[in-house]
Amino acid sequence: MTVMSKIEPPVLAVRDLSISYGPLQAVRGVSFSIAPGEAMGLIGESGSGKSSVAYAVMRYIKGQASGEVHVAGQDVMALSEQALGKLRGRTAAMVYQDPMSALNPAIKVGEQIAEAIRLHGRIGKALAWKRGVALLERVHLPRPAEIAHRYPHQLSGGQQQRVVIAMALACDPQLLIMDEPTTGLDVTTEAVILDLVNELRRETGVAVLFISHNMGVVAQVCDRVGVLYAGQLIEEGTTEQVLRQPRHPYTVALMRAMPAIDGPRRRLAAIPGRLPDLRSPPPGCIFTPRCAMATAECESRMPDLANSSGGGHRSRCHYRDEVALRLPPEPLVAEVQLVEARQERPRLQIIAVSKQFRARPALPFMRGPAPVRAVDDVTLDIPPGRTLAVVGESGSGKSTLARCVAGLIVPEDGAIRLENEVLDPLVQKRGRAAQQAVQFVFQNPDAALNPHWTVAEIVGRPMRLYGGQGEGKALRHRIIEQLEAVKLGERYLDLYPREMSGGEKQRVSIARAFAGRPRLVICDEPTSALDISVQAAILNELLALQRENGTSYLFISHDLGVVRHVAHEVAIMRHGRIVESGPPAAVFGDPREEYTRNLIAAIPTLERREAAPALLTA
Amino acid sequence: MSGVALPAHRRIVLPRLGVADLAGAAIVLGMVMLILAGASLSPYSATAFNPMHSLEAPSLAFPFGTDEFGRDVFSRVLAGARPTLLLAVGAAALGVALGTVTGLTAGYRQGPVDETIMRFMDALMSFPGLILAMLVVVMLGPAPINVVAAIALVFWPRSARLVRSIVVDLAHREFIEAARSRGERASFILFRELLPNVLPIIVVDFSLRVTSGVLLAASLAYLGIGVTPPTPAWGLMVRDGQQFIEIAPWLVVFPCLAIALASIGTVLLGERLRHRLALPGGGRAQ
Amino acid sequence: MQALGFILRRVLLLVVVLFAVSVLTFAIVNVLPGDVATAVLGDMATPDQVLAVRKTLGLDQPLAERYLRWLLGVLQGDFGRSLQHGQPIGPILMGRLGNSAILGLITLAIAAPLAVALGVMAALKPGGVLDRVIGGIAVGAYALPEYVIGLFGILAFSIWWPVLPGSSLMDPNENPLARPEALILPIGVLITGMLAFISQVTRASMIQVMGSAYIRTAVLKGVPRWRVVMKHAMPNLLPPTIAEIGMYFGYVIGGLVVVETLFSYAGLGQLVTNAVSYRDVPVIQAVVLIVAAAYGIGNLLADVAALLMNPRLRS
């Protein structure tokens, strides 16, 4: 035996990886490596190229890739198709964002796992099935032998993701690539999945490449973190280093945009501007146009990804050691006091509202399954100019409640009262004044705007419909005014939704809601489809509009961090009922109900949690 | 990314044919010119008998030959273009218009209105197209307008189903919820919010229907339904020429080629239209 | 349970639709502006003749009563009498139905699997040579009426190079399978038409399936390509495709009418075109009803087959 270096070779080594899709340079010169047993997180917003990097490791991309990718010593770019087939699933395995669509709907989950086992090891069908069941047990699925016989659609989202993880573990891979594995899952489910990942890491020593947009999630799992922006790795170091003492202004900006559930309440800081055009990236630092501390040098010369003084902490910024000094300090805001507001008559009252959904029976003339109580005897009120946030996990009935208030869904029981008037349950039957008074901002900016209307038509429509805001030139002036109120200008008038970014579309949505000068705006998860930096801007916009117009908000959200930043009052909803309500400081600081405590405990913060709350089963 | 993608099934997807697209446009353009120019292009009368030249093979004088009555097949084929295409376009326009209104209403209203309309459409669709058209024309009598009505009746439920399937999907989109919560009237939502989103599909559907209209009209004529003998309809010419197929194949071949050219032309043009309309704005990678 | 419910609902729906079909058929024949007696006799008929025919057809009785009598008769297999032959329609219909079924079923049995295979092959490399060739043939086959394809077939294979009979002329009671060579051209024509539709529909679905996330999962699990197609894509492709093929039964039936007329094949299609030229309204009405029912049942069977293959609905 020859003497060999004691340093173990990395499981994954990426050197100078670049990926382009036609003229679009999605990834440029990314290098990093992952040691055996290590977990590395890649953080980035949409368009950062993080998923492209993940799939390039498996050599599964449509674009052009250059550079080197070594997995367990094998040069992935040079492998034959056959060797690639052996690498995939055996040496490196993947876990995907949306487990429902990642699993084959027509094959039993046990068979999908057994197939992975049989592909890479010559063993019999029965034995492979048995091992598959053992893997399902390993990921803590209850009654694994029974679950193996089910099809994906018969499992919950959390269960599906465990199946995907079990399938990835089928051949004891050395590297696990997880692409946003908890995005789209409820927080409590997310917490359990993250615990599972940590447990499997401890027990199997598998290395992990973890892709996420959520810094809290990454902090729960990863030893090291890389931050991607516009296709470049701009910062890299241990989780502690990057998330506690960021050395790149983009990372700092991201942290400041993130609404946190703990610590002092801050004003969220949006990142100005938008992603540079990746068809012709600027020659200097790519973050320059949006950077608060950029200089002439930043514009002309691209900084290297170099070590800062901290040791092993790399940053692609000329001023990597002075970031904390050069950036302006973060403003704090005082907790809102709701004492005086309590005296006023509520603007909106939701009185004992209930709504059931009935499924169709399996056979005609047969009794159907028991109806689902989507909203169950909910009573809430909102004072003028204040925000009531209704928080809950998926299926809690919060969106149904919002649609009952809007008159889109007719509840079986209860009443909606707007100041002095009891509203008709169906919006079409409400008077013009009542229709005008209640407006809606939707979750998905892509679906909320008619793709065949221009911005001027979209924002102008409520003004025309409700009248009283002039015609022709005057109306046009009002539309521009309204657009300026959401920080869009005249040049947006003739754009179609497809020509705008998600954040811009959501601003148009908000402008439309405010165009009718409403007294109440229902915001149904208005930022959950947006990047963190854009979310911060939208939330600030909503707060400013409320201050100016004295509008009341019914704010629906699943994100306690967001709620903490916008709400004067919070109601926690579960299974159609209000579990607990009160001012955010009280609900978050000293929750009375166990469910609320668990919900808060499940939120991934920058602090690594020891284990998920015991009660949670997903 | 935005706009409405065509539903992936329910349609014939043909690969891009490049040059063939242009050929389609050229053929249809040629046909339109034939319709406009009409009989003035024909060297002979399409209907007058000329016993001296019965069943002559194609020659310089009679490029497509003559039939048993000595009529010039070339002139008859030219004269047949106008009725065939006008029938097809008329029937497609009527059928698609009916289908659009029905589909919009059924898809947006849903519930019992939708059920009733769609069960009626199902019943109409249970008749194979050609059979239904046959029955209607036989009962109404042979006249071009009746053929248009019959073919439109065949298209109606098919277009309605297509439009409805898209509207049902759109009706759950948030921009429709936004319109409802604003207090818009149903007619505004149908025609101002929904219709523009359905329009590209309607246009493509219309182009497909023109092709099937050509085929249905030609098949009806071949079966001897809807047109009476001296009329120079392509299908009827094939039917009459079939008995001479062994001695005078040109009687069959040229009208057949005309039908083929017309329908292939409309198919290719429709495909081109689909490619243009199905990709609004251009999607970006990733 | 869920599957059983679905099938039951589907059968109920078929009954409703068939009832509507009978009403529509009756309505088209009896309520449309055209008068049955005039349709039967032609425009030259004298008023006396019209009156006589109206009487033999029972047209002088109230509409609802006539409909009910007709429907009850049909339910008992009595379709009335043919004006042309003076015989009861039922027995004529049955023999013809069998002959048409032979033609249609052989066509389906060959065309459906072949078209699906072609569609899948085209979809594996969209824009490739194979895809273009299959697509080009599909355009042609789609754009040509059956009789045009059939006549070119006759010219090619029974006149210029006479290897096949150009006509399937036979006695209606003869078994068509006794002369299989006479079936080749008609079936060939029908298959060509079917191929165009089904192969392109299959292609579109297959491209969609191959682009889905679970196929990506399979590929990244290291599953070899042929196995991805056969084991992972096919089970998801087939159910909707089979249901789709059911929708094209009507097209096959329309094709049958033309092809049977072209080749003088004694099936329902030829019966109905003959009836049309003799204005034999009771026969037309009966054939239309039978054909619509066959179409409905075929559709139902396709839906049930698709259902049984789809684990989502089955369990």
From TrEMBL, chain A:
Xref: CDD domains: ABC_NikE_OppD_transporters
GO MF: ATP binding
Cellular compartments annotated: Cell inner membrane
UniProt entry tagged with the keyword Cytoplasm: no
UniProt xrefs under SUPFAM superfamilies: P-loop containing nucleoside triphosphate hydrolases
Membrane topology type: Peripheral membrane protein
Main location class: membrane
ABC transporter domain boundaries: 12-255, 348-600
Family of this protein: Belongs to the ABC transporter superfamily.
Protein name: ABC transporter ATP-binding protein
UniProtKB/TrEMBL annotation, chain B:
Locations listed in the record: Cell membrane
Highest taxon listed in the record's lineage: Bacteria
Primary localization: membrane
Presence of keyword Flavoprotein: no
Any Pfam family: BPD_transp_1
Mode of membrane association: Multi-pass membrane protein
Residue stretches making up the ABC transmembrane type-1 domain: 81-270
TM segment ranges: 22-44, 85-107, 127-156, 206-227, 247-269
Keywords noted in UniProt: Cell membrane, Membrane, Transmembrane, Transmembrane helix, Transport
InterPro entries: BP-dependent_transpt_permease, MetI-like, MetI-like_sf
Record has DNA damage as a keyword: no
Family according to the record: Belongs to the binding-protein-dependent transport system permease family.
Protein name: ABC transporter permease
Automatic annotation (TrEMBL), chain C:
Transmembrane segments: 12-32, 101-124, 136-163, 183-202, 248-266, 286-309
Residue intervals of the ABC transmembrane type-1 domain: 97-302
Subcellular location: Cell membrane
UniProt-listed PROSITE patterns: ABC_TM1
Entry protein name: ABC transporter permease
Organism from which the protein derives: Teichococcus aerophilus
Database matches in Gene3D superfamilies: MetI-like
Keywords: Cell membrane, Membrane, Transmembrane, Transmembrane helix, Transport
UniProt xrefs under CDD domains: TM_PBP2
This protein's record includes keyword Membrane: yes
Membrane topology field: Multi-pass membrane protein
Chief location category: membrane
